[in-house]
Amino acid sequence: MTDHSEDRAASLSHLRRAHLARGDAVPLPLEMASMFHLPGDPAGARQYGRYDNATWTGLEEALAHLDGAPCLAFPSGMAAISAIFLSLLKAGDRVLLPADGYYTVRVFAERFLKGYGIEHELRPTAAFAEGGFEGFRMVYLETPSNPGLDICDIAAIATDAHAQGAIVVADNTTMTPFGQRPLELGADILVAADTKAPNGHSDVLFGHVATHDEAALAALKEWRKLSGAIPGPFEAWLVHRGLETLEVRFARMCQSAETIAPRLAAHPAAKAVRYPGLPGDPAHNLAATQMLRFGSLIGLTLKDAETAERFIDGCRLIQPATSFGGVHTSAERRARWGDAVEPGFVRLSIGCEPTEALWDAVNEALEKM
Questions:
Q1: What is the dihedral of CA 233, 235, 241, 245, to 10 degrees?
Q2: Do residues 108 and 78 make contact, with C-beta atoms less than 8 angstroms apart?
Q3: Would strands 207-211 and 189-192 be described as parallel, antiparallel, or unpaired?
Q4: Which ranges constitute the DSSP H helices of 91-202?
Q5: Could you tell me which residues are beta bridge partners of residue 291?
Q6: Per-residue pLDDT for the chain (369 aa), expressed as one digit of tens each?
Q7: What would the DSSP string read from start to end of 73-122?
C-alpha cells in the first residue's frame, strides 16, 4: 500500500484556496444559521439548517480529502454507526460484529437492531474471518480492536465477504487516515469517531462516514436529514480546526508509543503489553503490512485492578479519563466498563507530550507499584 500521507497533509490546509474570492476569509467560517434567504423556487439553494450547512461542507471536504472518498458528518461516532445500520439494513438482514470491539456497538445491536428484526452475530477480531460470511448482509469490523488491539485482515475479509454479497464496514477510529486506509484495502464504508484524534482536544463529540458507494451515501444523507442526526456547526468548526494538525499530532503520538511500548514490555511491573508495533505481538506481522503506523494506543496489563488504578492515578502525566486520542496522555481500566479484559488491563492513550518526559513520568509511577 503506497503511503501518500505527506501529500494529503501538505494539501489539507490549502483546500479552501480553490473556493476563495478576493477578500474571503482564509480560515473556514463558522455559519450559525437555521434559516436562509429563500425567495421563490428553493431548488439549488441552502434551504434549512437540518439539510445543509456551509461549515459541515467545509469539514466534509477536508475529511473526504484525507479518507479519499465522499464523506458525511454526524454529531458523534455512534450517530454515524447507527446511521449505517438503520439506513442500510432491514428486517431479516444479519450483521456480523466484533465481539471485542467498542462495546456500545454490541449494546446498540442487542437493544435496538433486534427489535427491528435485524439479527447480529459476534466473533473475536483475531478470528473474524473464521466461519465465512455466508448469509450476512453486512460485515462490520474494527481493527485494531478497542481495547484489546487485536487485528484482522481487511483486504482478505473484504474479498470473502463481497463474494457472499455482504457490505463491509470498517471502523477506523483508532488509526485515523494517517495510520490505516480501509477503503483502499477493500472496505465499502469507513466510519470513525472524530471525537478522538481528528479533533484531538477532547472538547467535542463528532463522527463521519466515508464511501465511494453512491447509493449508500444517498441513503445515509437522507437518514441524516430525516432523523435529525445532524452535527452542530460549531462542533464541525472545532473538528476542522483540529483536523489541520492531525498529521503532526498523530506522528508524535505514534512515535512516542513506538518508543514507550517496548520499555513497558521490559518493565517488571508489566504482566503483559499489547501493541501492534512490538515484534513479538500476535498482530505485528499483519499490522506491518496493513497499517501505515502502529498507532497511539497501548494495552498494559498490571497485577490487579488496585495496582492499575494506583498507576493511573499516580502518574503525573496521565489523565484518568475515558476516550482517547487527545493531546494529553490518558488511561483507564477498561474492565470497569465490562470489556472482556483482565481486571488490571489499562488502555493507555499516548498523547503529544515530549516522549522522554512522558516515559520518565510513566516509569516513575510504575516503580511505585
A1: -140
A2: yes
A3: antiparallel
A4: 103-108, 154-163
A5: 180
A6: 667 888 999 999 999 898 899 999 999 999 999 999 989 998 988 999 999 999 999 999 999 999 999 999 999 999 999 999 999 999 999 999 999 999 999 999 999 999 999 999 999 999 999 999 999 999 999 999 999 999 999 999 999 999 999 999 999 999 999 999 999 999 999 999 999 999 999 999 999 999 999 999 999 999 999 999 999 999 999 999 999 999 999 999 999 999 999 999 999 999 999 999 999 999 999 999 999 999 999 999 999 999 999 999 999 999 999 999 999 999 999 999 888 899 999 999 999 999 999 999 999 999 998
A7: EESSHHHHHHHHHHHH--TT-EEEEETTS-HHHHHHIIIIIGGGT-EEEE
Report d(CA 273, CA 256) in Å as an integer.
15
What homologous superfamily does CATH list for 246-367? Aspartate Aminotransferase, domain 1 (3.90.1150.10)
* Three-state secondary structure call for residue 210: strand
Number of residues that make up the chain: 369
Residue extent(s) of CATH 3.40.640.10 domains in the chain: 5-243
In the chain, CATH 3.90.1150.10 covers 246-367
On whether the CB atoms of residues 295 and 276 are closer than 8 A, the answer is yes
Which residues neighbour 78 within 8 Å (Cβ) at sequence distance 6 or greater?
104, 105, 108, 193, 207
- In angstroms, rounded to a whole number, what is the distance separating the alpha carbons of residues 228 and 226? 6
Q: Which three cell numbers mark 24?
A: 474571503
CATH of 5-243, one of 3.40.1190.20, 3.30.390.10, 3.40.47.10, 3.40.640.10: 3.40.640.10
Among candidates 231, 182, 211, which has minimal Cα distance to 77? 231
| pLDDT tens digit sequence for 325-336 | 999 999 999 999
Query: Which whole-number Å values give the CA distances from 322 to 147, 151, 329, 347, 360, in the listed order?
Result: 11, 22, 11, 9, 23
Burial class for 64, CB neighbours closer than 10 Å (0-12, 13-18, 19+) = middle
What span, in angstroms and rounded, lies between the C-alpha atoms of 250 and 230? 27
Distance CA 8, CA 260 (A): 28
